[in-house]
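In the current project phase, work has continued on tokenised descriptions of protein folds. One protein thus recorded appears below exactly as we store it.

——
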Amino acid sequence: MSPDLIALLALGGLLVLVVVGALIFVRTGQTNTQSGASAAGGSLTARGWSGPGGGMSTYLQPVPEWRGTTVQACGLWPYAIGAGTPMVGVPLGRHIHTGATLCADPISWFQRAKLISNPSLFVLGKPGLGKSTAVARMATGLAGYGVQPLVLGDLRPDYVEVIRALGGQVITLGRGRGYLNVLDPGEAKEAAQRLIEAGFHKEAGEVLEDAHGRRLAMVSSLLTIQRKTQPSDVEESIIDQALRVLDREMEGVPVLGDLLRVVQEGPEELRQVAVDRGDFNRYQEITRGLEASLLALANGSGRLGGVFSHHTTNPMALDRPVVYDISAIGEAEGDLRAATLLACWSNGFATVNIANVLADAGLEPRRHYFVIMDELWRALRAGNGIVDRVDFLTRLNRQVGVGTAMISHTMADLSALPEEDRLKAKGFVERAGMVMCGGLPYTEMPELTTVIPFSEAEQELLTGWQDPPAWDAATGREVDPPGRGKFLVKVGTRPGIPVQVQLTEAERSIRDTNQRWYEQSRTARRAVRAVEELVEEHEEREKEPV
């Protein structure tokens, strides 16, 4: 044997002896330790064996800690990741980067998760990126939790089929399609009578006064839209007294024509607030402009038509989801759309207030509502002072069990308002408990960051989602826009959560706003048949022998 082979064998034998000896030593030590611990009555703990001779440590040296930025610390521990997404509320979609499920809605985050201090949501984003779809998903999920969705004005419509699928009430408004009486107190009188019979006299008076205030605000709003300027203080006082005269002397539900009649008659209460000095001719001069405006509203001869001059055709229910379908009002009738939106909001919030008072008195079960106010910008642009009216309608206390969702396109919609209304409208966004932003243009970022802090990365994300769709050469069709269904959920100064809203097949079947395009028009069918006949004729000619 060669010397190298002999040395290799010797080294191998030495290694075997070392390994065997180590195993015997470890096994013997474990046996002795276990027997000693057992004899002493000790047990194995996180600090060693307890008991005499066990070697348990009475002092643990703290682990050294260091702090560093995410740029530096990732080199030492490259597996760092942000906190998980909230799992309380309606399943909205998946986190775009991590794929984690995000559950989010303003009511659950306020009531159960305690993530926000105000159960309200404001949604911003360019048209066609799924703002209404995301809010409809929240409404559907909240209905499963027992919350009643209220869509106070559906313009396209986007929510009619959703509410109908939930077994709710669809109220159609428009010229010749349905009427909404702005002087109708709704269930206020019946609720007040029930409260009086149950001994709640103070609450009954509050219900009636609230109904009176909302009717006064709604008439003033209609006059503002009709004139493009707010009514004077004297005119509002006259309307206030005229409504009280109607409530006291008229049986049944009054309409705008009845209000006009009281103003024309000029009872003593109205003449006192008009300060006519005992001269009826002077009273008529003071009320001339108000009479002309009310006459146009009552006769349906103005821009607002007769939608508000007749009795309500379909009163709003308290115990199920409701949607006001105003899609029959065309784009060209902007003033009528804005007035109808305000009337729907006023009627909806009045119904919510009555339901809460009855529940507080134990006369009705407690109900929570999710109020959706879409196309907010249309109502805000209707005239000066409308922002104050909307602010009055939407300032419900958070204890009344109402969550709200306001939807608009961009902050530029709010900035286009007159100076006195601009800051008030921005307050809608500032007061919102949570804000969801879809794709937005670059020019929107400076204005948006003055209200909500966005990092540069978040701004790049939002501006990237507003890009137009690409063209698929294989199918000859446009693919979905890159930002469709993608939103950034912001709560205060916290980092935003990017989410992709994912719909189920059931939701897709009732949420498709392009259904009318699937059925080919008659002219298109005739054109297709003509082309097919020409192709067949050409093919037959080619088959004929030359």
In short: The chain has 22 helices and 15 strands. The longest helix spans residues 3-40. Residues 35-40 have pLDDT under 50 and may be disordered.
